[in-house]
Write a structure and sequence with these properties.
The complex is a heterodimer. Chain A is mainly alpha-helical. Helices cover about 70% and strands about 0% of the residues of chain A. In chain B, a hairpin with a 3-residue loop joins strand 14 and strand 15. Chain B is flat. The chains are: A mainly alpha, B alpha/beta. Chain B: This is Putative GPI transamidase component PIG-S.
Chain lengths: ~425, ~575
């Protein structure tokens, strides 16, 4: 009961904090919605409002060229009262989704998959935080709160991914694939998580059932479920939106071809402003392949820790996807505390954390200098996004190094606790 | 960006090679434990996974997105057209001779001798006149008949000392009057009537011939041919007066365009007149002319009324001339008459040039307003339009301009329009001038489209890195086929059809030459590609290639070891 009371306190506290911020600073949600760090062209709440306006007037929401999000969000939001007059219901909805995500995190943490798998178990598995602490880390993370109040629709993608993982670790492989299908439907990139997630489901099944289902059959079954869930969602969208082709090009075409180069915390916008037009298609391909190529390598190398592969891939996406925002970083930071046992093995924590803090504090300032004060230029903001990406990359590389070190010590019990150096 | 890529990719190499690059540095310098076979396999798989992405996805994307699509163009044909090897434009003008009062053999004899005289007079072979009796119905009934450039009617008239000729103003017909005594006998070799008719015809076509010679000699394709019958030889033979008038005409007239926009503007410095019967006036005086021009160009008509249109502050004000009791503008100040800064005269109503016609009604206090010395009330602004000063008949201010008030102005405008469109000044008959213009335009469009083809061919040959979209190849094919048929029509004397084909050819040629997607990469040498690829792909590529090389080396070593053992 004590644990439950803690959980209730954390959840209640997080919920009240969000409402309190709304009540004390009524302009905060709109301010955050307008920030490029929070809202990207594919997750912006403002653009969602535009799409909603068109949708409720029986015009195709994609007609204005502003709205690029999945059409299934529209009927959900059209049920809520207008966020202009009544901001409370929208914020309550987003807060509840945050709480659901936190609950999924607790499930993941309590399953113990982060520290031990089917054929592997971390050396330092006694060093870990319990689920409620991890949920608290997620719920009270300023990035999460900013995303929640900024009402970025990326939280729906995060919810899909987190529930896919939590269903996978509890053996509900079917639900897991459905949730991943939902996330991929909203924003394409989660489809890259299919491989490690499928392996996680397979390991889970193999561990509990003690029978080894055929790998190929298992993979094909889950691929079918995954594809069918996406097809189903697309079918429903086609019913909602008359012009299916326009819908595809406005949503997935937009996410794949990156025509909107509004600044964000990622690396693509500046690069594609600068590149020669004739090389644009080529480098679009290069950037997407770069993003996708990590999936195979990481999954094979860390075959014994599929959950860690999932977390690392989410970190990579937060750096290298076309329209990243701090909500992607907050998702990565949500999964990172699961690997408390790796923290002693990490070497550049201080550097990474200070780079991230530096970027967090200076980013808005430099953006202001560039856009509003006019005393800076695009390079100021881009330099900060470079530092931000550098910080995240170092953190990623460091955790991957720590995980490999841990695995290596597991394989070579005689060298435990010795210093290592990288050559 | 590159630093980060490197960072992450090197972290990948860490993951790939971690098993052998972590060495234990204890004081005892114990060697690291040996690699397990499964670790080696894993490493191989990781490297293979990265290379699989590169080979199966990366290379196709690279190939697809950076390959330059170059549709094949008929380069030799295009160069031949530009050099004038494919087509020598000729202008055989068919002239029908009607002889209602002459018996057949005599008529034929007259035509034959006249033709002979004409050929002797003509020193420009590209442009020649072919006489034909009107009852002579062509040599080949299957062939489309040639356009009749002129009809000569031989009419009998008593009491004439010399033959007399008269050009009809509303048709292309030349009436020649002669007395029965002047009819040449069948035996005469060079009868005076033939010489007279030949001289008249030669006279009529002098200006046209000079203009066409000018056009042909300006073009590098046809001007270079150094024969005695070449256009330059022809040009040197014309009188300096005529040469001057042709040059003046060329300076004044607009560049040829497929569509012209006519803008009629009423400007007045006061509040009145504030309305005009423009629709009726345009219908009455302009539309018939435009219809006559429709085979040559298309037209749109816009009108506007601008009240309180003042002169530019820098423009010299009109001066009062006691002698003529009129306000006068100095001829040298006419260029400042139009207040370009304030009068809304849009230079681009649509694609194609705008021809402005300005009707200026001076205020009562400054009326009548005329040009000093010549007392003219209208003038042409070269390559821009025309101006007409409408002075009210009595010096009361008009409230409304009726169709009758506009008559002089619009007749002047229609005359100015002819000048601006490049119609030759002589002879007076409008249908005749339009026919001449048809031939001139057909010639100049044919040459211009040919030279565009040549430029396009040279451009695509000299810049191997520019893409050639399929649309360009299609346009080139269209141009060449229409050029061929235009040339054929010219040869057969069907000038209307030739002009229609030449217009299509010119439009297609311009479209292909100014294709947007071609110029994007025009100035992108191959060395720049290194600068684009290397900084971005180098940091990713180096670890991948080094990893691959290590694997290959190991595989070779393993094979050697196996062979030894």
């Amino acid at each position: 009961m004590g644990v439950d009371r803690r959980k209730a306190a954390v959840f209640g506290g997080a919920f009240v904090l969000r409402l309190l911020l709304l009540v004390l600073f009524p302009s905060l949600p709109d301010l955050l919605t307008g920030r490029v760090e929070v809202s990207t062209p594919v997750t912006s709440f403002k653009r969602l409002q535009e799409g909603l306006f068109l949708y409720t007037r029986n015009v195709s929401p994609y007609d204005g060229g502003v709205f690029h999000q999945a059409p299934l969000l529209l009927p959900i939001f059209s049920l809520l009262p207008s966020s202009q007059g009544f901001p409370l219901p929208t914020v309550v909805l987003y807060s509840l989704i945050d709480l659901l995500n936190a609950n999924a995190l607790i499930t993941i943490s309590e399953s113990g998959w982060a520290v031990s798998g089917r054929s592997y178990s971390a050396i330092r598995k006694h060093i870990r935080w319990d689920g409620v602490t991890i949920a608290a880390c997620f719920l009270f993370n300023p990035f999460t709160i900013a995303t929640c109040l900024g009402r970025s629709t990326a939280v729906f993608t995060s919810a899909g991914i987190l529930h896919a993982i939590s269903s996978a670790v509890t053996g509900k492989a079917f639900n897991s694939m459905l949730a991943l299908g939902f996330a991929s439907y909203l924003s394409i990139y989660p489809a890259l998580l299919f491989m490690p997630l499928m392996l996680l489901c397979y390991d889970q099944r193999a561990q509990t059932a003690q029978t080894f289902p055929s790998t190929t059959v298992f993979a094909l079954q889950h691929l079918a479920v995954f594809l069918l869930s996406i097809a189903g969602l697309l079918g429903v969208s086609a019913l909602l939106i008359g012009d299916f082709r326009a819908f595809l090009s406005a949503t997935y075409g937009f996410q794949l071809l990156v025509p909107d180069l509004t600044p964000n915390v990622g690396l693509w916008w500046y690069f594609f402003i600068e590149i020669f037009d004739s090389f644009r298609e080529f480098f679009l391909g290069v950037f997407w392949l770069h993003l996708a190529s990590y999936m195979g390598g990481l999954t094979i190398r860390l075959r014994r820790q599929p959950l860690f592969v999932l977390s690392s891939l989410l970190g990579i996406f937060a750096v290298f996807k076309p329209y990243p925002s701090i909500s992607d970083a907050s998702l990565y930071f949500a999964l990172l505390p699961l690997y408390r046992h790796l923290f002693p093995l990490m070497r550049y924590t201080f550097f990474a954390v200070s780079a991230l803090l530096y970027a967090t504090l200076l980013g808005p300032a430099f953006y202001h200098l560039w856009i509003y004060a006019g005393s800076g230029n695009a390079n100021f903001f881009y330099a900060i996004t470079l530092v931000w990406s550098l910080g995240l990359s170092i953190l990623l590389a460091d955790t991957i190094f720590a995980a490999l070190r841990d695995e290596w010590e597991y394989d070579n019990p005689d060298v435990r606790g010795k210093d290592v150096k990288q050559v | 960006m590159s630093t980060k890529n490197e960072d992450l990719s090197s972290s990948q190499t860490v993951s790939a090679h971690s098993d052998h690059i972590m060495t234990v540095s204890t004081t005892s310098q114990r060697p690291p434990p040996p690699e397990k076979p499964e670790a080696i396999r894993t490493r191989f798989k990781v490297i293979a996974a990265f290379w699989a992405v590169i080979i199966f996805l990366g290379f196709p994307i690279w190939w697809k997105t950076t390959s330059i699509y170059r549709a094949s163009l008929p380069i030799p044909d295009m160069i031949d057209w530009a050099d004038g090897k494919t087509c020598r434009p000729v202008f055989p003008l068919e002239i029908r001779v009607e002889t209602p009062f002459l018996p057949e053999p005599e008529a034929q004899h007259l035509v034959r001798t006249t033709q002979h005289t004409l050929d002797d007079l003509n020193e420009f072979s590209a442009h020649h006149l072919r006489l034909k009796l009107s009852n002579d119905n062509g040599d080949d009934p299957l062939q489309e008949p040639a356009d009749t450039a002129l009809t000569v009617r031989l009419l009998l008239q008593e009491d004439l000392v010399n033959p007399k000729s008269e050009l009809q103003h509303d048709t292309t017909q030349l009436d020649v009057y002669y007395t029965p005594s002047q009819v040449p006998p069948l035996s005469s070799v060079n009868p005076p009537l033939s010489a007279y008719i030949a001289g008249e015809l030669q006279q009529l076509f002098t200006e046209e011939k000079a203009i066409i010679a000018q056009i042909l000699s300006d073009s590098p394709a046809t001007g270079a041919a150094a024969t005695s019958q070449s256009p330059s030889a022809m040009l040197s033979s014309i009188s300096p007066q005529l040469a001057e008038s042709i040059a003046k005409r060329l300076r004044r007239s607009m560049k040829y365009a497929d569509t012209y926009h006519l803008a009629f503007s009423l400007f007045t410095p006061g509040a009145e007149p504030s309305s005009w019967d423009i629709q009726a006036a345009v219908h009455e005086y302009i539309v018939p002319l435009l219809q006559a021009f429709s085979p040559i160009s298309n037209f749109t008509v816009d009108t506007q009324v601008q009240l309180y249109a003042t002169f530019a502050p820098t423009a010299p004000a009109p001066e009062y001339d006691e002698e003529h009791a009129a306000w006068t503008l100095k001829p040298e100040d006419l260029s400042a008459f139009i207040n370009a800064a304030e009068w809304p005269l849009s230079p681009s109503i649509g694609p194609g040039p705008t021809i402005n016609f300005i009707l200026y009604v001076p205020e009562a206090a400054q009326s009548p307003l005329v040009v000093k010395d010549s007392l003219a009330t209208s003038w042409v602004v070269p390559q821009w339009g025309g101006v007409f000063l409408l002075n009210p008949a009595n010096s009361t201010q008009l409230r409304h301009l009726s169709r009758e008030d506009l008559q002089t102005a619009f007749l002047t405008f229609s005359h100015q329009l002819l000048t601006l469109l490049g119609a030759p000044a002589t002879p007076a008959a409008l249908p005749f001038r339009l026919q001449t213009l048809t031939r001139i335009r057909a010639a100049s469009l044919l040459l211009s489209a040919s030279s565009t083809m040549g430029s396009l061919a040279r451009l695509t040959e000299s810049l191997p890195s520019i893409p050639i979209p399929a649309t360009v190849a299609t346009s080139v094919a269209t141009t060449l086929s229409h050029l061929t048929s235009a040339c054929e029509h010219l040869r057969r004397g069907r000038f209307q059809a030739a002009l229609a084909d030449a217009r299509v050819a010119e439009t297609a040629a311009e479209r292909s030459f100014f294709e947007k997607s071609m110029v994007g990469q025009m100035y992108f040498p191959d060395e720049h590609k290194v600068a684009v690829y290397l900084p971005l792909l180098g940091p990713i590529g180096v670890p991948l290639i080094v990893g691959l090389l290590k694997e290959v080396k190991k595989a070779i070593a393993l094979r050697k070891a196996r062979q030894v053992s």
